[in-house]
Design goal:
Number of domains: 2
Order of helices and strands: HHHEHEEHEH
Radius of gyration: 20 Å
Structural class: alpha+beta
CATH superfamily of the largest domain: Lrp/AsnC effector binding domain/regulation of amino acid metabolism (RAM) domain
Distance between the termini: 21 Å
Largest sheet: 4 strands, antiparallel
Strand content: 15-25%
Helix content: 25-40%
Number of strands: 4
CATH topology of the largest domain: Alpha-Beta Plaits
Amino acid sequence: MSLLKLDNRDISILQVLGREGRISKTALAERVNLSSTACWDRLQRLEKAGAIEFYAARIALKKLAPHVNVFVLAELGTHRAESFQKFEAVVARHDEISGCWALGGGFDYLMMITTRDIDSYQRLMDTLLEQQAGLTRYFTYIVTKAVKDAPPPLAALIAATDD
């Protein structure tokens, strides 16, 4: 897969959208110092190329419902392809698991779970064990406070190719 060639304006557009996905096209154009038409053309090109996967709102869950966020390091009993596939299929069926990443190193997966309370979290983990997803050990880390939750540092990650 070849990487997209982006210039500084493309990166600026992506940075603004990463922070403020609902910004109007006119305001976006002003922020990145482009005409509305030029900004719209770039935005369409970025969308078509797959640089923007989707638009979403960040929900203030603490204002809507009691909840707890939990990170879980998970270890599988066997390390065959079918074991990983089975675990991933089981994880995909549970909405409370909002993120799951395969890891290199000591553990196999890192999961991010949001549930109503610790009891519902434990019921979920019991269900994962009962579904024989291959989970043999897991380590629970309860989030006590969000310190930082920001979009990735695009400018630092992407080398711009000015046209």
